[in-house]
Amino acid sequence: MLAISCTFIGICLFILGSSGNGLCILVFLRKKFRYRIITPYFITLLFVDSIYLLFRLMKLLYYSQTLFKLHANTEEACSKTFLARVYQHATQTWPQPLVPLVHSETYMRFALILMSIMSIQRTIFITRSLKFLVLPTTSKDTYKSKSTIITIFLAFFLAYSFEFAGLTLFCSKSNNRNITYDWFIDMNKYMENATNILTNTMSDQSNSLKCVNYAINTLKQNRTLFTESKLICTKEELTNILSYYFDQHQKPIVNLIQKIIFYQTGHRISRNEIRRKYHFHECLFPQQPNFFHRYYDFMYSRIFGLNRHTLILGKN
Fold first, then answer.
1. pLDDT tens-digit readout, 171-186
2. Strands (DSSP E) along the chain, which ranges?
3. Closest by CA position to 187, among listed 247, 279, 248, 262
4. Which label site among 7, 138, 147, 266 has the fewest CB atoms less than 10 Å from its CB?
């Protein structure tokens, strides 16, 4: 029932948000405005605004379990709606070049780039009109509409390129084993009941659970790990287990990582940034884990703008 409610609310918000855009498009399609140079820009921006709203709502439902503090049943229901499942299928199963097409940030960048180009074009138009004290004829406006369409496609290509590069430019070749091991030590020493979240995710893996429970009990007794003569598992095995489970992009693990990082730094980190910074995923230039995490803030800096996290092209 909750899933139906979340879907219904999402569809209603999309219809209400897009209805004004639809009316504006009908106005621009009237004969009086249809053949003006600026009309394709406005119609494109109106369509893009509706597409952005749609994918933003889908993303909001998909991440509802980590964005909002709701009751467990509500979180799970909203994140399993039809819109959220479509978004999940597209982002996790589509080929990498197609994924930016379902990201709302792509269309935000497209709109910003297109508005910048449109502003320059109108400035040149007004300057020339004032200089010669004459307005271009309708036939010239129609002729220039071809270049306008080319400009629109070029703006979209630029926006797509920024998003695709930001998604796939830099990443770690694998989960950082040193970081996950340090997380495990810290949450045992300073975070009560945090280990339960981790052990609950491995209830069906008896060997992994035994190894982790051994490490938890040893640390609770203030003893040094892996000093006994008969070991249940080695440090290498424990590190492999922790690396595997901390790399799972699931709600309990994501929430656990958020709690650990908040305890360590005092900053709240989003689910999307956890995937980008700590979870393994494909990219164009994979880096060694230690190198990637050492220079992560530089590679994803908003100041240098090497990727999608730039002030000019929009925030994630």
1. 888 888 999 999 999 8
2. 170-172, 285-287
3. 262
4. 266
